[in-house]
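Sequence design from tokenized structure. All designs in this work follow the same two-part layout: the structure record, then the generated sequence. An example of the structure record is given first.
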């Protein structure tokens, strides 16, 4: 992303971008954010600075930088990173005179991914927009205790073994991972267009009693469910 700095006389243009650099285990690479400056606006003038890096964690990816002119003429940079496990939004401030960075601050948290930040000066503060696969909850206008969780925003999520909070949701109602379509017909084949998940909270830890209860429910559900639907039972 390119930022024009109107109050700087010797560093007018600030392009930020991401490129692959050596990182992680030997032989691998990680995305890293870098930047450079241009003294003037003449496209033919060779007045570019050297390429400088954003301080990085060499084991993590840093991508999608979004710079913003901060108070006092410094720059505030927002970017997406895997420094905290899954994709999160981070920010840091750059002193444009000394070209030194302040500490990186994590902006978003939780199991949902956050990527592609865009920061806008809203006058009273900074408005930060970004992409996320977080599910959206809707409260019922009729039944106060009823909430609907819309998972359609999950999209495709690459599995990251370091995103432990996201992986811990696997198989639960709040799971936001995306799976390959299951074509089987057993209770373990859950991810399909015709399935309806029934989350059960047993009052016993006896596997036999749980299986018997599930069997009884399975025998009567056909009287209530549409013929095109298939129930799968999910227990802790």
């Amino acid at each position: 992303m390119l930022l024009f700095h109107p109050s700087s006389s010797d560093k007018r243009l600030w392009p930020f971008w991401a490129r692959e650099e050596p990182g992680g285990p030997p032989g691998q690479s990680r995305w890293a954010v870098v930047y450079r400056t241009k003294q003037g606006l003449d496209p033919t003038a060779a007045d570019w600075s050297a390429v400088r890096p954003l301080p990085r964690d060499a084991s993590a990816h840093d991508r999608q930088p979004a710079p913003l002119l901060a108070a006092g003429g410094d720059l505030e940079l927002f970017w997406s990173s895997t420094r905290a496990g899954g994709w999160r939004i981070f920010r840091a401030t750059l002193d444009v005179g000394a070209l030194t960075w302040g500490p990186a601050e994590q902006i978003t948290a939780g199991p949902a991914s956050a990527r592609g930040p865009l920061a806008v000066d809203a006058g009273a503060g900074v408005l930060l927009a970004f992409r996320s696969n977080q599910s959206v909850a809707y409260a019922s206008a009729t039944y106060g205790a009823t909430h609907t969780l819309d998972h359609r925003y999950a999209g495709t999520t690459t599995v990251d073994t370091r995103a432990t909070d996201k992986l811990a949701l696997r198989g639960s109602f709040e799971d936001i991972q995306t799976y390959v379509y299951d074509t089987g017909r057993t209770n373990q084949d859950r991810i399909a267009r015709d399935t309806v998940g029934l989350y059960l909270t047993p009052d016993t830890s006896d596997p036999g009693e749980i299986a018997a209860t599930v069997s009884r429910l399975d025998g009567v559900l056909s009287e209530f469910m549409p013929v095109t639907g298939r129930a799968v039972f999910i227990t802790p």
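The mean pLDDT is 87. We note this feature because it recurs in several other targets discussed in the main text.
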